[in-house]
Amino acid sequence: MATETPITDSSTAAGPNGSARTAGPGRRRIGSGVLTLFTWLVALVFFLPVLWMVLSSFKQEADASSNPPTFFFVPTLDQYSEVLASGVGSYFLNSIIATAISTLFVLVLAVPAAYAVSIRPVEKTQDVLFFFISTRMLPVVAVIVPIYVIAGRLGVLDNIWTLVFLYTAMNLPLAVWMMRSFFQEVPREVLEAAQMDGASLLTTMQRILLPMVAPGVAATALLCVIFAWNEFFLALILTAVNAATVPVMIVSNMTSEGLFLAKLSAASVLASLPVIIAGWIAQKQLVRGLSMGAIK
Amino acid sequence: MRIPRRHPARAPQARTVRSTIPRWTALISAAALLLSGCGSPEASGEPITVAIVANPQMQDAISLKEKFRAEHPDVDVRFVSLPENEARAKITASVATGGGEFDVVMISNYETSMWAANGWITNLQPYIDQTQGYDDQDFISSIKSALSYQGNMYSVPFYGESSFLVYNKELFEKAGITMPARPTWAQVQEMAARLDDSANGVSGICLRGLAGWGEVMAPLTTAMNTYGGGWFNQQWHPLLTSPKTQQAVTEYVDLVRNYGEPGPATAGYGDCLTLYSQGQAAMWYDATAMVSSVEDPASSKVAGKNGYAPAPVMDTKASGWLYSWSLAIPSTSEHKDAAWKFVSWMTDKDYIKLVGNQIGWERVPPGSRYSTYQIPEYRKISEAYARPTLAAMNAATQENTMVHPVPYQGIQFVAIPEFQDLGTRVGQQISAAIAGQISVEEALRQSQAYAEDVATVYQREDGK
């Protein structure tokens, strides 16, 4: 069976008995050392801006915008207390609602849709898939005025459900495509076996398919959460006081006159935390899902 | 087969999936409940929503909200505060399409006359006339006329600014240079050449070079105006390749390239503020609003060491721009009376005193009212810059700062809707010339082509 090939491959690659090392010990060790060093360097380059943001959030404004940059300073929590005192609760609540509910809606809609286009394709499935993804090709700025006018006429400006609806629509095509690729990896024999055992469509979905594609669902959900949480443009234009989300709160700490880097960094750190936590949780799910899969 | 064996092993997880469904439902219900709670805050009174630009003086107004509330318990005011570009995009989208989210918006003299002509904002004159003690004759006259349309005020100023030349007196003394009472661009060039000390990290002058109609194009347009060039002549023919404009732009670009700050093509107001405040520039030509930062000992190393000279001139007796952040009431507002209560509170003489007493006299919004400059406490702290600021504001009219009459409103901008885009695209060309990527001639030739596209519409309207 196809499942056996990766096992053989992985055992060779892992080289548990050290046979791989004996082939070319010195050169390989240097090569892997260089690679590790390079990986660390790349990781450091990507991590530096984040580190700088965290450091700046503990500085006073004058230190944060000094030139040359200040590396040694007396840390302060002033910026955090200032950001928290300006009332960030409603922004976080709005973001959590918009993100959680839109992600839930996306999954509820995308999973059956992806099932249909991958497991039971019909004649025009490819066209349908292309139509889905084509909705992502138009830049949001090109449709913002019609969206704004329609929302205004419907009286749903500054309403969190408008964002929930738009974020669902925004993430749905991507989720369908992602889930489709996961469903395609499920062998048909498994589904046929379930059918032979008399399982209904719902049972097959619940007991066979979903557990098998759980890592895919987690990955898709995480991506939807990140996109919805970070979305700025629609939130900026369509909300005011009742439905403003965290990214809108972050920019409200910027000003064209005066210093703002430290306060902005503190707001950004606070805004990043939920996504980092969500990523961490999903990562665990992903790993568990992968290790539990019998097919992969 | 393996499948039937896996089936029961998966069963517990399937149960988990099922059992999470009620949990999700509960979460959504809880969120919806919370949401319905945050949609209607406990504060009572007629709700008004105010959209403002997140500058320090506006943040002060938000912090004084309770004072307004104490005077007007029947009005519940809520703020949306965003940085300039985001605020402008959002307010324009809302007002232009009649979105109606806002009862009060902060706009500038760029928008006021255009929006008044479109009927997007309310005529405030009847409100002003009916409000006792609200002295509109006290508004600085150049600002008042910039915010009026057909003789009526459509927005009222919160603060105003012009531009002037700040210089570091210590560096001037050391170099043995005296700033002329009314410097010309040629003199500025000469002084910058003598003061430029790259070895010690001091530039002769700091000038904006960052692309954008509100960045490099603001100071540069004042230079173009005083040289006798500009954007358009009376017949809407673009003047960007005219010899006078070319001379102004060439000298500005040469000045900033030779004696200006490092990396001038990306330097904006904020960069020059940092450099000048750190003592790394001998002169800086920019907004009069700079004083609150330049004279603040907490963030500026040159506080108390500065002299202020009028904006450099060439063929006019004065130069400098005029800009004001002001408050207007969109026509779509359903709470106009309550909105006016707030607008009149935030732009009244008493508000200036309130800020002075509660927050500090250095934080007072300047450049809106003559009476501000009569307050003893404010006069004391603003001794070095109050008079030059007021003089710059008074001089900032088209008649004083331009050689030829123009068919539009505005000094450092052309008050037409297309200007934001045109100004930014021309700014990109100028920035490229400052960076040395293209010549000034090339930049202006391309800019002229952009301006011709825009001008066609207005030439046609004129022809009708």
TrEMBL record, chain A:
Q: Which UniProt keywords apply?
A: Cell membrane, Membrane, Transmembrane, Transmembrane helix, Transport
Q: How does it sit in the membrane?
A: Multi-pass membrane protein
Report the transmembrane regions from the record.
34-55, 91-116, 128-148, 160-179, 208-228, 234-252, 264-282
Compositionally biased intervals (Polar residues): 1-14
Q: Name one Pfam family in it.
A: BPD_transp_1
Where in or outside the cell it occurs: the entry states:
Cell membrane
Q: Which InterPro entries match?
A: BP-dep_ABC_trans_perm, MetI-like, MetI-like_sf
The superkingdom listed in its UniProt entry is: Bacteria
Disordered, as annotated region: 1-26
Q: Which residues form the ABC transmembrane type-1 domain?
A: 92-282
The similarity annotation says: Belongs to the binding-protein-dependent transport system permease family.
Name assigned to this protein: Carbohydrate ABC transporter permease
Organism for this UniProt entry: Arthrobacter hankyongi
